[in-house]
């Protein structure tokens, strides 16, 4: 019997360092691993997305488009993959269709192959245009199901959504589990259901590892017919990140499945990032495993967000009440999956409800969510709260695709970018400024200074280590000081006796 | 359909802190969690074994028998479980049968319920007497298969070994995977094979999590019919430890299996140990996930052992050669599983072979291993090396059960203990000294001072943190001192140059 080959998407260049190191990894810490990554036999290499783009221009003074071109050069044999937030692109609002087309065109031109297109609310209308644009440039359009748990989310619902994505031309379906909520049985049932209903459409499964259970979910998904699964090289894995690539390889040994990955290459990649990760220690999250989300339904990042909002109001002791309010607000909104931006919108409204009375004050974003401006959720919105939203925001309910209400904006975006110091005249720069108008202008100005790393160099770490070592051991030899005594400077050597 | 109930053995009180915190956890850090552990619905609570016993008297000035009685009192509803190294008991040599009986009797008397009996070489003759002794006192005798990978270890061989253990009266079979080598497929095949061959004998599966793959192995073992699996509460899990209890619960939700554990209790247990673990940070291993063992066959602890032996000989650069020598030595010895003590014996001989020429010098222990004094391995020993061992050690080959060559020793052990200062006259003390003759005498002397904790109190941690914080920030400006020199006070400002 020949084992069925399971494709693997390596996440180390994007989601792994986004989840573990606050997206801070500099390009110089990735370059040396690219040849091995290119040769290891992955189905694809995820290397680009909203947070990496943002981090490039916000913290690293690096042009994200150039990063993409560098990856393209260094990994000529690999499918490069990105995560695209549908009509939001990599930003936080809906863009008019022509901007979406421009972005996809430019991404493809600069080297992107696989576009994983998703929407926080799972509203297919918010993914449709991006997917059509991907197909238009001849690249791989992957439609995405964001997995969550709620009274209205069912296996059947996810299977139906997969069908809508296939109808929209998805070349493959991604089951995306950003909160590590996907348990083995639903993983099996959803993948199996999609395969049985729609035939042999390619299914990719993406799980985080926060709850400690999702490598088992990948196993069950594979048994159910999944074709590609996501993993991160072990030295950049686990916690809020992903399951280790080498463990995945080991998991399938002896079964009727195989990854066919080159273990010698994986070891080199692992050893490379094992030296890189410690340099970003200050950005690391401490979470190793956390299953609270199964009962609270509240992702870790959302929880800490609400806690800091409460503290800022001097109400840090009311987090329990807010945690109990979240499911109510979520239900009122029609059970959106809690990911960016819906997690922030629901969380902030829950805080407001506790501090000021339920819906006495409504944020503009929450009103928009209630009135359809982010798209449709699976559940029904609470009509009383919708009415309140209309009154408070003085806006109408919309039912069509949100982007249909937008006017053409490309020319205006070109004009805005052109006015900026350091703008290089490219459409890439126009898109950068369109998506991150609060950050791009400063980046354009300093771009010529070249990329900056926020990693601690070995030298910096060594000197910190020595300093702390000296402290622990005490002073070993003479230390020289400049001592000012009675206004006069003396050079003094001090050593223990 | 009613879900099949899967029992869970909680490891936090023994193997979890042994694997993660060098067995240093003090009783005072466990007491507060015992009620919740007792009520959570575990099949058993592992709480005693060789390393915890050793650590009690070596580092914590605590009587391990008293620890056991305390557990018994605090957890009246639980099966207490221990790990027993067959004829070695908790020590490092074979004991004569009457000592084995005494130890089992006293352990049962002090509160032990389930005895997991194992032998490093999987030689049933080394387990037989301990198991018979357990049955004689009416307690649960669990026969153990140590899982390893080698050219002579097969699924069929493990199934056969299970049969031998059942014939010896095992009430259940433990599949013990101390190096996290048990992959999903063999986990399934071995459990399935045992159930199909011998009917419904209870099977317990124990896996470490080092390679990141073994929660999947537990899933497959459960699918194959395993009855009880081992886990550690999440705040004391992963890395060289075990899979998280809560993740196991989540894994089975929605499947045809259930743990029926009380999640509210688990959360309390988790929160308790989340505050305990940081106090032992200095004892923590850094390993998070490591799949090297699949190719090297060398457990992490054994590797670091060999490295330090090489460094002590000024040959730290020859570790590659030693790593290549290990499989050869292991094969010559008949493929023993590499666990204590076989891992040390094989590793040290591999170092000697590299430094001084192959088998030019043989350790006494390796000669004993080659001549049958530790029992039989599954593979054949290399006859040429056996001959060398006979010559160098001037000893005969033995083929019977090693303990058959021992003379009654109980009276002598009583005499030895009685001569010690602080001996309390109990048979428990005789056993303590019999198993740890190098440590017990000093412990008996200081026992009256009561248990000592090696944990860092929050206050200690805070002051260390402040000290290191100050150091890291460096001296920002001049610091003023009052210096008394030859009886006169000077006010001095010091700053770095």
Automatic annotation (TrEMBL), chains A, B:
Domain spans labelled Pyruvate carboxyltransferase: 6-267
GO biological process, any: gluconeogenesis
Annotated stretches, region: Disordered: 447-474
InterPro entries found in the cross-reference section: Aldolase_TIM (IPR013785), Carboxylase_cons_dom (IPR003379), PCB-like (IPR055268), PYR_CT (IPR000891)
GO terms, molecular function: pyruvate carboxylase activity
Family annotation (NCBIfam families): PRK09282.1 (NF006761), PRK12330.1 (NF008984)
PANTHER family for this protein: PYRUVATE CARBOXYLASE, PYRUVATE CARBOXYLASE, MITOCHONDRIAL
Name used for this protein in its record: Oxaloacetate decarboxylase
Organism: Tessaracoccus lapidicaptus
């Amino acid at each position: 019997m020949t084992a069925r080959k399971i494709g693997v998407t390596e996440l180390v260049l994007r989601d792994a360092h986004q989840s573990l190191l606050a997206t801070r990894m500099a390009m110089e810490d990735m370059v040396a691993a690219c040849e091995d990554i290119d040769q290891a036999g992955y189905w694809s290499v995820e290397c680009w997305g909203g947070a990496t783009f943002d981090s490039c221009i916000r913290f690293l003074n690096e042009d994200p488009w150039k990063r993409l071109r560098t990856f393209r050069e260094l990994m000529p044999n690999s499918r490069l993959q990105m995560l695209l937030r549908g009509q939001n692109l990599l930003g936080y609002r809906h863009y008019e269709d022509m901007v979406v087309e421009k972005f996809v065109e430019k991404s493809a031109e600069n080297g992107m192959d696989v576009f994983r297109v998703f929407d926080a609310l799972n509203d297919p209308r918010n993914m449709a245009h991006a997917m059509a644009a991907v197909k238009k440039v001849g690249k791989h359009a992957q439609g995405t199901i964001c997995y969550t748990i709620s009274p209205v989310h069912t296996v059947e619902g996810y299977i139906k959504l997969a069908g809508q994505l296939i109808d929209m031309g998805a070349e493959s379906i991604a089951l995306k589990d950003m909160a590590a909520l996907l348990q083995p049985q639903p993983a099996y049932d959803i993948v199996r259901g999609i395969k049985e209903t729609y035939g042999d459409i390619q299914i990719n499964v993406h799980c985080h590892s926060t709850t400690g259970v999702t490598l088992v979910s990948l196993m069950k998904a594979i048994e159910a017919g999944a074709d590609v699964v996501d993993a991160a090289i072990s030295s950049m894995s686990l916690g809020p990140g992903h399951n280790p690539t080498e463990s995945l390889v080991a998991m399938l040994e002896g079964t009727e499945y195989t990854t066919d990955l080159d273990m010698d290459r994986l070891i080199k990649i692992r050893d490379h990032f094992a030296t890189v990760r410690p340099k970003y220690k200050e950005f690391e999250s401490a979470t190793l495993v956390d299953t609270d989300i199964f009962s609270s339904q509240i992702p870790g990042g959302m929880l800490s967000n609400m806690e800091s909002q409460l503290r800022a109001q001097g109400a840090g002791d009311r987090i329990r009440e807010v945690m109990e309010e979240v499911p109510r607000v979520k239900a009122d909104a029609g059970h959106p999956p809690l990911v960016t931006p819906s997690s922030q919108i629901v969380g902030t409204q829950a805080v407001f409800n506790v501090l000021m009375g339920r819906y006495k004050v409504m944020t503009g974003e929450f009103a928009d969510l209630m009135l359809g401006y982010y798209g449709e959720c699976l559940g029904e919105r609470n009509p009383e709260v919708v009415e309140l939203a209309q009154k408070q925001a003085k806006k109408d309910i919309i039912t069509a695709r949100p982007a249909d209400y937008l006017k053409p904006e490309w020319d205006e975006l070109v004009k805005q970018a052109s006015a900026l110091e350091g703008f290089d005249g490219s459409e890439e720069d126009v898109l950068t400024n369109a998506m991150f108008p609060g950050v791009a202008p400063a980046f354009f100005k300093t771009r010529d200074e070249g990329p900056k790393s926020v990693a601690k160099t070995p030298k910096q770490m060594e000197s910190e280590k020595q300093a702390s070592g000296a402290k622990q051991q005490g002073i070993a030899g003479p230390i020289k000081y400049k001592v000012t005594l009675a206004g006069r400077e003396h050079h003094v050597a001090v050593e223990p006796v």
